[in-house]
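Sharing a chain and its predicted structure for anyone who wants a worked example. Both blocks are below, sequence first, tokens second.
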Amino acid sequence: MPASEPVRLGRKRALPSCPNPLFLKWLTELRDEAKEKGLKIQYTYQKAINSLNKYPLPLKNAKEAKILQNFGDGICKILDEKLQRYYRENGADASIHALPKEAPPPGRSDNNIILAPSKKKNAACDQRKDGGGDGGRKKKREYVPQRRSGGYAVLLTLYKETQVPGSKGYMFKMELQTEAQHLCDKSFTVPDLGSKYTAWSSVSTLIQKNLLIKTHNPARYSLTEGGLALAERLASVEQTNTDGDREGVRSELEATEEDDNVVDLTGSDEGEEEEEENRIHPAERRAAVTQVSCDVDDVCSSGKPQNSQTTTTSRKPNAECLLPGTYEIMLCVDFIETTGGSHHRKQELVKELQRNGVNFDIRKLNVGDFLWVAREKVAPVAGQLRAPVGRELVLDYIVERKRMDDLCGSIIDGRFREQKFRLKRCGLRKPIYLVEECGSAASHLSLPETTLQQAIVNTQVVDGFFVKRVQDVRESAAYLTIMTRFLTKLYQNRTLICRSRELEGDGGSDEEERGLPSCSLMSFAEFNHGAVKNKCQTVREVFARQLMQMSGLSGDKAAAILEHYSTPHSLLTAYEQCTSEAEKEKLLSSIRYGKLKRNLGPALSRTVYQLYCTQGALT
């Protein structure tokens, strides 16, 4: 260093945290506003804030910010509008590289709290600058869900389930939603106005935080060790917080009733009863009714009077069933049947149904083309724009409609067997195949007519479907009209009980055959969700689809094999335990399948053995 240059001693002056504090202030306001509304764009604004904090040069306008990461046309347009407004209020030569006098300067700690949240990197950097060393390093905060949020209710509900003697240790989605609803302020099934998220959306956060584990299909939810520990702490805190509330509830009850027995609270508030019923999803009410042995602590932990829980108990017959006269039969048409392809032909079906006076609704069906639901009649509520959504139970009839040319194409590409397999597993016990002729086009099909006729006969005789053959679209509409009127008359005096496919299996009771005035049906939401084609599949389901790719191996035969060997591993293990090659080839030959209980036979058994045990390419 030259001797003439003076030596500057002292502490180095700290630089401002951001050379563009005005843009930073506006972005922070936008982020906070989006956060209050629950919009996901808040994360985009936060990324833009992080990029702006890292940029060391001052910006003259918002267009220059496009070179920064996470700054798109939308954000730059908003900043430009705010900048123009700022110039109109403070003059064209006002500085944009310094905040107004009333705002704190960028380097101050209180401004850092406003402009950047404590969890973000820029705040951590500022703290390291001020404190130095390890003082600025922040510990990772433990995730604790907010009280009466979705995650809070799910953790507490699963924890209470584990405390029950003989508990299975997990819960299905619908029973978990029903049991957790009274512990949460938001609905698990219906999003708030202007939002697409429900309280159930927080379950993904619990899984990411390793507090919850999701297995099997249908999904089973259970707590991890960390989740169990956190839920236990939440339960103890909740118990402490509600000790005083419990005494207050009991004193109010003693003031309103002469005796101390908390039993009959159903006649006190009809409005709360209806609100509680509407808040619970129709398909989940059965599970809600079964859990009625809640004690006073559980009721108080929900933060609501006990009459909401007791109301569900006392109204058990109405909460889980639809009484005669309280519902209407409606035809549901898959939207694929009204759009795409031959638009004129598909619109003709809709016009025919309208002309016949059929009450129908067009919606997405994950399996089948037509089905019927019993929809609850709900009166409009004064002061509300839309009437409350009524419960919907699916009748046991589902129709798959096939034109002859479509049938030919589905046989060639393999959809024919897959669709029949899915119809058998959808949970509805009376599948119908509606086969529609295609006139003179039948002579130009890729398969001979005898093959198509054999496929139709197999569908009726082997698969047990009811096959109805019609000539054109008008006859199809006429058949659907007659079926709708027949089902309306058939179910007009029946009490419809909602059953859960997850808890009671695919099979249902035979009340209809025995002539009983009631029958159990699935809710439409549960049916349609369970029939999703591309959902996550278990090893058992993939194994079944794999077996059905073999020639001559139908769905019934695959199901029979799965009853003995549910996975490829179990089948290969059984082959290894055989002592000779001939025994391996005949391992599956004695397995019985179908209604007639016939054997699979040695030929098919040998084919399966060769597929799974032959080394190298098959010849």
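Comments welcome. Residues 104-135, 249-319, 504-509 have pLDDT under 50 and may be disordered.
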